[in-house]
Design brief:
mainly alpha
């Protein structure tokens, strides 16, 4: 890895852009060919992509149903569902507090210093907030959240 990085630095310039020597370019090409042949196109990966797609789509659809123009209605329904879905609703609500105008009082109490990113009263921005929230989930948290949705 060290030699690859050194080669990358030696062969790259502002004029040429990011470059590798012929030797390391060929090495990277062989590694990529190997990965596609033995990893990326493996049947287990294909099945896993379908499985993970189902999980992500389920979480997205579940959170999507919470969209309300009236933030007070959203607050009420999240609190109501927190008994059935404690993990997912708690952390989604915290996400909304941190990154939207969902609850300014609690936002100040949490000492959130970041800018507000989403206007969740806008449906498209609410959906973007969901997508970004899901993108930040760890695998274990995502699976836990999925099981919370599908369990009785």
């Amino acid at each position: 890895m060290h030699n690859l990085i050194v080669d990358f630095c030696k062969n790259s310039t502002p004029e040429k852009g990011l470059c590798l020597s012929g030797q390391y370019y060929e090495l990277i090409r062989k590694v990529k060919d190997f990965n596609y042949k033995n990893i990326y196109n493996d049947d287990r990966i294909t099945s896993y992509k379908q499985y993970s797609g189902l999980i992500i789509q389920t979480i997205y659809s579940f959170l999507r149903k919470y969209y309300r123009k009236d933030i007070a209605d959203l607050n009420t329904i999240l609190r109501r569902d927190s008994r059935k879905y404690p993990t997912l609703t708690k952390y989604f609500e915290e996400w909304l507090i941190k990154y939207s105008g969902y609850d300014e009082k609690r936002r100040k109490k949490m000492k959130c210093g970041n800018s507000i990113v989403y206007n969740i009263q806008d449906e498209q921005e609410f959906c973007r907030a969901i997508i970004d929230y899901i993108a930040g989930m760890t695998d274990n948290f995502t699976i836990k959240s999925y099981h919370e949705i599908i369990s009785f």
